[in-house]
Amino acid sequence: MHFISDQLEDYIENHSENEPELLQRLSRETHQKILQPRMLSGHYQGRVLSMISKLVNPKYILEIGTYTGYSALCMAEGLQKNGELHTIDSNEELVDFQRRYFDESFFGNLIHQHLGNALDIIPQLKTNFDLVFIDADKENYSNYFHLIIDKLNPGGLILSDNVLWSGKVLESLKKDDIATKAIVAYNKLLKDDDRIETILLPIRDGLTISRKK
Ligand SMILES: C[S@@+](CC[C@H](N)C(=O)[O-])C[C@H]1O[C@@H](n2cnc3c(N)ncnc32)[C@H](O)[C@@H]1O
């Protein structure tokens, strides 16, 4: 869902940083060959992720939900020189696609792919993180939060995507709509948890920034 007009969206994109050439190619190939290309962050949100990462200048980044690697490459732009970006996805078919683009970028050797269910993989990660991007199955957003909050360094950020869920967060809940129910509960969890401060931004489908105190 677009919360603002196409015209304004174009204006916003045209007055923000250009999309790097490698990411233009990745986006094009995703749209040509991969199912559900709408999942990719895209030009504007990608530049937002890149800017946030550059401001944080993290040593360790965790991404939950790699898809074709677009957002991982955006966040990698802000990594420290000896930093690491760990990105998790359960879809085996995407691994080679992701690796090809990671290796074409400046950050290939800093990006570590993890294949499997994020619920199993996160507890095995030994590092603490400065920046976390949650962008996988909505039903598990709250579970991901509980798994990562103790692995987040003070001052570290959690970014959560799709928190407005096409505006469905305002509608009366349908019994079988598990995803909307989960997002509504997650937004409340972030607002109520005293360990973090949270700001929900109306960027694309809703992007929350939560900072650990
Ligand atoms: C919205 S896409 C991620 C988009 C990507 N972050 C971007 O902006 O370009 C969500 C991804 O989460 C993955 N996913 C869904 N459930 C998962 C789980 N339980 N563990 C790991 N990955 C999961 C899917 O395979 C899919 O590739």
From TrEMBL:
PANTHER family assigned to the protein according to its UniProt record, in alphabetical order: CAFFEOYL-COA O-METHYLTRANSFERASE 3-RELATED, O-METHYLTRANSFERASE-RELATED
Official protein name in the record: O-methyltransferase
InterPro entries for this protein: Cation-dep_OMT, SAM-dependent_MTases_sf, SAM_O-MeTrfase
PROSITE patterns linked to this entry: SAM_OMT_I (PS51682)
Native source species: Gelidibacter maritimus
CDD domains the UniProt entry points to: AdoMet_MTases (cd02440)
Annotated GO biological process: methylation
Example of a GO MF term: S-adenosylmethionine-dependent methyltransferase activity
Keywords: Methyltransferase, S-adenosyl-L-methionine, Transferase
